[in-house]
Please model this.
Amino acid sequence: MSKNLLINFNFNFDQLGDAREYRPPAERVIEGDIVCRNWDVDSAKDDKVRAGVWESTPGVNRSIKGETWEFCLILSGVVEITEDGQPPVTYKAGDCFIMKPGYTGTWRTLETVRKVWIMA
Model:
């Protein structure tokens, strides 16, 4: 990560470096063979605030935030997010939302999705 104080957060993925590829924990996967990729862009405050780009292939998994606050901006694809006890909400490119600490629900990726995320 850069030591600069002004960080270019462009979406040229060739310039973000190598992505970390992983699968969600098996106990959280409800449907599909989900593959995720993450590009860490920057962090601050001893890694308590972080930002990056994330991608996921289609599938359904449990989403549990714990103590984490997360802002998301969907860049491409379509997801349906259902907070426990609430109706589902669909998000597509250009939509943004916040998942607050304590959030639990399901994340259904309908079309491979990319998002910008900021966690604190």
Q: What stands out?
A: The CA atoms of residues 13 and 28 lie 28 Å apart. DSSP finds no helices and nine strands in the chain.
